[in-house]
Amino acid sequence: MGKDQSEYKGMTYEGYGPNGVAVIVEVLTDNRNRAAANVRNAFTKGGGNMGTSGCVSFMFDEKGLIVIDKEEVEMDEDELMMLVVEAGAEDFGVEEDSYEITTAPDDFETVRAAVEEAGIPMVSAEITMIPQTYTVLNNEDDIKKMNKLLDLLDDDDDVKNVYNNWDE
User: Fold this and answer.
1) Is the pLDDT at 6 greater than 80, yes or no?
2) Which residues of 83-95 are buried (b: 16+ CB within 10 A; e: fewer)?
3) CA pair distance 116, 7, nearest whole angstrom
């Protein structure tokens, strides 16, 4: 990264993977043409196609997401839930081995700080795009193509984040 950071531009590409799986790709690049070509190539090789701006983003909500490993928490579930709700969390989900706390983007930092101040280690804490609905892939060929699409995007140095609504 010897280049001046001001030369980098952030862009978002949207499209569909196999069987209509919605995909959002966030890119940070110093070469828009290369980035667009690489993302388009990944969609093509992955059995999908790029769409226009806004074609899938309406299917996602921007949210803060904090994940906590159940084994790392000493307080009980109700205490933790009260802590995060009082700090501004929108939702508190209990998974098999973790707790998932969802916040509005504006409340994310306040809730994250409350969890940190309580001495609770977090597996992850980020602002992300959460799908409103999910798409299931039943066809083995579609699953292979979707994995290829995601792998190609993951291998691209310009790609910073990839969001999709595939129900794996």
Assistant:
1) no
2) bbeebbbeebeee
3) 35
Q: Are 20 and 136 in contact (CB under 8 A)?
A: no
**pLDDT at residue 23 above 90?**
yes
Cα 86 to Cα 68, 78, 101, 116, distances in angstroms: 17, 12, 12, 14
**What distance in Å separates the CA atoms of residue 22 and residue 46, rounded to the nearest whole number?**
13
Tens-place pLDDT, residues 132-152: 999 999 999 999 999 999 999
d(C-alpha 165, C-alpha 76), whole Å? 32
CA–CA dist 38, 158 (Å, integer): 9
**What's the start-to-end Cα distance of the chain, in Å?**
35
CA distances from 119 to 80, 98, 148 (A): 11, 16, 40
**CA–CA dist 101, 143 (Å, integer):** 29
